[in-house]
Amino acid sequence: MEIKVAIFEDNKKLRESLKELINTAGMVCTGAFPDAANLIRNITFSMPDVVLMDIHMPGISGIEAVQIIKEKFPAVRILMQTVFEDDDKIFAAICAGASGYMLKKTTPQKMLEAVEETYQGGAAMSPSVAGKVLQMFRSQSSIAKHEFIQLSEREKEILGLLVNGKSYKAIAAACFISADTVSTHVRHIYEKLHVHSKSEAVAKAIKQKLV
Amino acid sequence: MEIKVAIFEDNKKLRESLKELINTAGMVCTGAFPDAANLIRNITFSMPDVVLMDIHMPGISGIEAVQIIKEKFPAVRILMQTVFEDDDKIFAAICAGASGYMLKKTTPQKMLEAVEETYQGGAAMSPSVAGKVLQMFRSQSSIAKHEFIQLSEREKEILGLLVNGKSYKAIAAACFISADTVSTHVRHIYEKLHVHSKSEAVAKAIKQKLV
DNA sequence: AGTAAAATCACCAATTCAGGTGATTGTCGG
DNA sequence: CCGACAATCACCTGAATTGGTGATTTTACT
Questions:
Q1: Strand-pair partners of A103
Q2: A131/B99 Cβ within 8 A
Q3: CATH number given to A4-140
Q4: How does pLDDT run across A31-48, given as a tens digit for each residue?
Q5: Which of A210, A141, A202, A196 lies closest to B204 in space, CA to CA?
Q6: What does the pLDDT read at residue B43?
Q7: What is the rounded CA–CA span in Å between residue A192 and residue A30?
């Protein structure tokens, strides 16, 4: 089925060409609006899968619009579109629930790909925006330096259950294996984490976000 | 000038085709290695602008390699390449200093674009990976509701030692009290936290920031 | 085809833990 | 002064944990 796209963009020329672009690419533009007035009604009527949202609009800003849309229509995926690449705007857009963030200088071809990817559940970002996100991400989590710890799937599963306070016996039951096997896995986990007790393992798992 | 690319990839076939791809796209592959042995030497000789790094390699893992490269050659930009899209691997790679993270199922064309974007200072990410990053990003800014837990000074002290993985005996020694007293305190802590094991207490202590 | 890692199970010893009971201080506020 | 509570210690029992050795099977990669 065709991807239904709604456009919010105050520049008329750009709005029209985006509409044109969408419609000639096997998708369908079910609405193109110059601002976020009557937002709920416009979304309800156009029933979009993906919203292309300009950050800078008269009246309600694109970021506020994202918050409102995400609250009322959580399933709708939103691709921000803007000329700005300030950290705070990017941050605000992501926290508001945007699924992607493209710069307007992006080529039409890439923009279409981005809409497609957004529809399919991915996050489309212009590389420079993505770079800023990684930067922010690192600065937020620079509290503990992360050793790289390679646990097998099973080990991660068991570590998760350990963190939840399960005993070997309970883990054995949950994983359909014997308590002896749990013990073996736990021993391997301890070796990889360089710890010698459950509490150390649990503490490390949480601090290093292994679970 | 041509972009110089070094490849780390344990699978020989893939390594050769990547090399081929790079060389036929106006870039130059200055090195292709099956593992991270002699990492420093190989980087020094190949002088790459961009490193294509497989996460899963025998010996030193790709993530450890990233840490080492970033430490010795901060200017080198690294594009991770892997079949895995586990949160923890992505997280570790980003924190280690990777500039991008592409899935191996990515088309050769997109892979070349990614190398190009990486070289130009952007961050190339497969959309599904980018989605996970946004997810992690949002979840980091969320705050856990905290119950009202009133621990005595001594209890907080002992809980802290528990979180650090100390045994009752070690705690007894550290606090100059008997192991039996530690046991009593721990019992009281469990009651106040509504838990029944060391691991649960440790997990709760960390999540509620009691320590 | 052959090696390496992961996952599985078993047996075993020594230690640790969880929770029950009971008791002695010291401190604080009413 | 008394009751409540924190802090201290002791003894006990059954269950859980840690860590060692050894082995089989499956899966993945070379």
A1: A82
A2: yes
A3: 3.40.50.2300
A4: 999 999 999 999 999 999
A5: A202
A6: 94
A7: 54
